[in-house]
Amino acid sequence: MALFLQPTKMRQLLCGYWLLVPLLFGAYLFTLATVKNVPVGMIFTSIPSLTLASIVVLLMIFQLYGLYIIGHSSESRHSLLGSYLIVNTIQQLLSFNIPGFVICLLFYRSLHNEKERSRVPKQIKWTIYGLMSFISFMTLIILWLQLSL
């Protein structure tokens, strides 16, 4: 189990999950549209919960992009990666994505607890902060819409 909880393995698992879920969801949408013999846009207008689910799935692509941008800059909980994982863990929990929540939490727990000095360029830092703000804002909108349905 300790071998599995290495930060590089957890990063690969989280990247794979955030890449695989949108692909499977897209395949499900196209299969559903084919079986019902309607365009995909018609499915979105007729099933509102599926529309919300597609927004959550599209957020995973943005989260994957952020994880890709951060790269291997640091493996500390007190770094930009640690902050990014905290935001994504909360987002996964609020969107009721339990597997994503568990993987994000395990990835965060696999990071080292000591402080590291890592130099992340300001452009990447501001991009990640903007991405975290966007993800948080979209999660609040999705949560508000779910509660109003």
How would you sum up the major sheet? none
Report the portion of residues in β strands.
Answer: under 5%
Which shape, going by the Cα principal axes?
elongated
Count of beta strands = 0
Polypeptide structure, described:
It is a single chain. With 149 residues, the protein is mainly α. It has one domain (7-148). The protein has six helices and no strands. The chain has helices at 7-36, 40-46, 48-70, 80-94, 98-110, 122-148. Helix 3 runs antiparallel to helix 6.
What does the secondary structure layout of this molecule look like, with pairings?
Elements: H1 7-36, H2 40-46, H3 48-70, H4 80-94, H5 98-110, H6 122-148
Question: What is the compact description of this entry?
Answer:
The chain has 149 residues and is an all-alpha fold.
